[in-house]
Amino acid sequence: MLAAPRYARPFVVVFVGMLVACALAPLNLWPFSSWELFSRLRDPVASSWVAVVSGHDLRTRDLAVGRHTACDPFLRSVTERFASATGVRIYRVERPLSDGDQSHRVPSYRALVVTCTAKGVRGPS
User: How far apart are CA 109 and CA 91, in angstroms?
Assistant: First the structure.
């Protein structure tokens, strides 16, 4: 019978310790996950945020944004990227997740959250 290498015991101790620590603490360090992917219920709707840039010589462009994107810095960065940009409309997009039945496709729903222009910020009317 072969003896285990010298580094095997410390490795196993550290490995098992990381598994226990990640299971008890809200850490999700790969490969020691806390199994959140399988331990939470999934909502039937996936939500995301989209910014639509508009301008005089510019076709409408969709940009992905985060939930807490501030209007003024985002508008400045967009006008630096697209010189003819006059405003940005931020939408919340809700897409129903598939239940496996492809014959009943439900379209996405898009709701205007805020409009950012050089004149100021406006909420949906």
Answer: 10
